[in-house]
Task: structure prediction
Amino acid sequence: MDVRFLATAFATAFTIIDPIGMIPLTLSATASDSPGQRNRIIDTAVIVAACIMLFMGLVGRSFLEYLGITLPAFTIAGGIFLFLIAIDMLFARPTGAKRTEAEEREAAENENPAVFPLAVPMIAGPGTIATILLLVNIAHGDKLRLAIVVVAYAAALVVTWGCMRASTFLLKIISNTGIHVVTRLLGIILGALAVQFVINGAIQTPVFHH
Result:
């Protein structure tokens, strides 16, 4: 068992999806829906997000190879991208990797927010897809490592589903301040992971081996 890869996969999955951060986002996206409708929307959103993430995990590596993008290059780019998300999380700013202002306006006009904006881009956004591709590439086709990635993101989705389902109750307990504190802590972890990805990518770059 590759304990380091296991820890990296789980830490990355939970920090980038940010189940706690999904609580206020869920409530704002489903503000005009009844509790029953909200639950159905949440169920659909998580299923759609899971399908998108699985699809990208399956075809992503082949797509990168087709484009001629090397693992070190993608690892460095992915690390930089995740670091930018981590900065937004640290300063409690809405990150463009989750949603843009234009997307928020469109979401407010959308009758069923399950697919947009909840599934995409709030759960399975560019940041989530980037980390999946990153981990799948680092796995190098190792079946155990690939299984770890699947389990890590499945676990993060289950926890996210639970947080979204109990969003009204959890917001009363945690409060917005508590959510910001958790998001900042996750931002620190994500920032450290992002820097490590960049370092790993730089080390793997052929120019550093000469």
In short: Residues 3-203 form one domain. The mean pLDDT is 89. Residues 167-204 form the longest helix (38 residues).
